[in-house]
Input
Amino acid sequence: DTGVSQNPRHKITKRGQNVTFRCDPISEHNRLYWYRQTLGQGPEFLTYFQNEAQLEKSRLLSDRFSAERPKGSFSTLEIQRTEQGDSAMYLCASSLLFTGSYNEQFFGPGTRLTVL
Amino acid sequence: LAKTTQPISMDSYEGQEVNITCSHNNIATNDYITWYQQFPSQGPRFIIQGYKTKVTNEVASLFIPADRKSSTLSLPRVSLSDTAVYYCLVAYDNYGQNFVFGPGTRLSVLP
Output
């Protein structure tokens, strides 16, 4: 399978704990995006990378959230001191810039976070 | 203030054509409009993308008026397996950043 993969698929944690999610994009894709989706809502943009550079971070994103993409390959999203309001599906997507459809983002299956 | 709106839900019968409209004022002048399909517990899946006028692929058509303040996804002859949530995705600045999904339209296809 050469699609976007995310790990873990499910994570249950207690309030106040730190969690880290991983995303492996499609290998030749240079853009990587993180979104958050709560039940009944559309995905909410969090941040995106072009290669290893983090180009945009949502103003709505708390300082407890941080993302990295070392070497422009996989990415990690860390949430520190989790709160119950962080419970959501965290989606990763990747795309290839310099095609005619650079906004064609390919999504992974998501990581469902539950904060107790 | 950037705002994207879609009908919350739609019902249709198998074999009918379904049109879903997304309203998106003041989107980036150089960015595409993209539509996605999402099934429960899965990530969104790309359906179609366009910049203006009409685009057609093997599964859908996309109509975009000249002012680009809205777009309409057209699904010909829907089947039960098309029951899903449909989202439009646009960008609100010219750097292709700040990607904004619409609230989604839940399509129910009935036999």
Notes: Chain A has a mean pLDDT of 91. The CA atoms of residues 30 and 97 of chain A lie 7 Å apart. The longest strand of chain A covers residues 88-95.
